[in-house]
Amino acid sequence: MNKLLSISACALLLASTALADKNHAVHQDGAITSAPDASKVAAFDILAAHAHSDGRLVTFHMTTNGVAGAEQPNPTGALGGAPVFSYVWPTSLDPATVGFEGDTGILALAATSHPDFDDTPLFDENNDSDPANDGLLWHSHWVVLTPTEACGDGALGVRDIPEGATPAMPATWPGLPIFIDSPGYTPLFDGPEIAITVPFANPDIVTGVKYDGVTSALRVNASIHAPLLCVTDVFDVASGDLSLPGTLN
Q1: pLDDT at 8
Q2: Alpha-carbon distance 183 to 201, whole Å?
Q3: Does residue 19 sit within a domain?
Q4: What are the C-alpha distances in Å from 61 to residues 15, 40, 76, 192?
Q5: Which of 37, 106, 204, 245 is the most exposed place for a label (fewest CB within 10 A)?
Q6: Higher pLDDT, 30 or 234
Q7: Burial class (CB in 10 A: 0-12, 13-18, 19+), 65
Q8: What are the beta bridge partners of residue 62?
């Protein structure tokens, strides 16, 4: 009997593994693929970036060469100079699609981790009744990226809001002087894969949208002045050149 149970358990395990592999394969249909690179941190080494829609819901996926989400920044103890790790899906959507001022840069969905500050004031990700201490846990943002020479030659940064300016912001903007939204969509991790599902009121808006996949590090300016948040290290780009070759159909 024990032998039969062991055989059954092994069969169930193999079936579950096959199903998981099948689900990953389905998600990767039409994905932007990238060859593994042993020189990169496995959790940020992109193998595929992919997105698919189901009515008004769009799920963005990224498959890595390691365990997605396993690497998180070490805290510095201060906001100035604080590090941020991220999984990012740049898109061709106009920022106005999610409530930002239109024609202001590259609208990107991001999952981030940063232990030194919390930028999701409406959400208590760790369920301890304190919504201001959750920055380390992976959470989602919409951001608007723009070329920002102050961040470095050819570098990107999250678009700043100049003092006195009042551009349109989403309802869940966390109040920081940058183009960032904290919508509360929960990143889901499954071994090598991270996924975020986003609702859109009008599904026609996202038909044919172009996208890419990026893993990167950002850093808050040490003096907490403009630019506030710079991309400091690009770990990997699914397309290799940020050409947004993926198409959401």
Answers
A1: 36
A2: 14
A3: no
A4: 23, 19, 30, 10
A5: 204
A6: 234
A7: buried
A8: 49, 194
Percentage of residues of the chain with pLDDT beyond 90: 86
Task: Classify burial at 171, counting beta carbons within 10 Å of its beta carbon; exposed 0-12, middle 13-18, buried 19 or more.
Answer: exposed
Query: Which tens digit of pLDDT belongs to each residue from 160-177?
Result: 999 999 999 999 999 999
Two tokens, residue 175: 């109040």
Structural domain total, the chain: 1
In a domain, 221, yes or no: yes
- Identify the pLDDT of residue 27: 52
- Whole-angstrom distance, CA of residue 141 vs CA of residue 181: 5
For 244, what's the count of Cα atoms within 13 Å in the CB-facing half-sphere?
15
| C-alpha–C-alpha distance, residues 192 and 201, integer Å | 30
Which structural domain range is residue 130 located in? 31-247
Write the pLDDT tens digit of every residue in 138-159: 999 999 999 999 999 999 999 9
Q: How far is residue 150's CA from residue 148's CA, in Å, rounded to a whole number?
A: 5
